[in-house]
Amino acid sequence: MIAKIFLLFLLCVLSVAGLQAQKFYATRNGQISFVATNDDDVSAVNNEVASRITSNGNLTFSLLIKSFFFQYAEMQDHFNSDYLQSNTYPRADFKGAITNIQSVNFSKNGKYPVTAHGNLTLHGVTKAITVPGTIEVAGNKIIAKAKFTLLLSDFNIHADRIAKKVAIQFNCTYQ
User: What is the C-alpha separation between 142 and 28, in angstroms, rounded?
Assistant: First the structure.
């Protein structure tokens, strides 16, 4: 009986130790920007992206659509009301993982090529995406960057007269 209790205690201690070994890094002021692939004037930036990355590769980000800032207020109004309908679909979210996280040494400065795979939810549509990027370890900071293109029709966004595709840039510095 004592041996069983000791074994159970040992398993609990090891489980807790394993959970504590996983580190996570977070930011609330990450940046996502986009530009229409056919018109550089159609561009915006959001500097209020909340994101989290863990040392085992889990990656999430979330943002309010209304936090995209355009050069012209009229463009911002059309974006929110006509195209993204941000009152109905207020957020965009990504939940996934870095598939090659084992190639990143979080205790050694350097740039590491990575690939993230997961589900992006935008405009009420969830779609699996795979995105190449980099993780840079610089002292006590982790910097994740990625560039990719989205086809707006994949997310039921009908903006064909403005843009069919947008080039996205993701840039987050984690503490």
Answer: 14
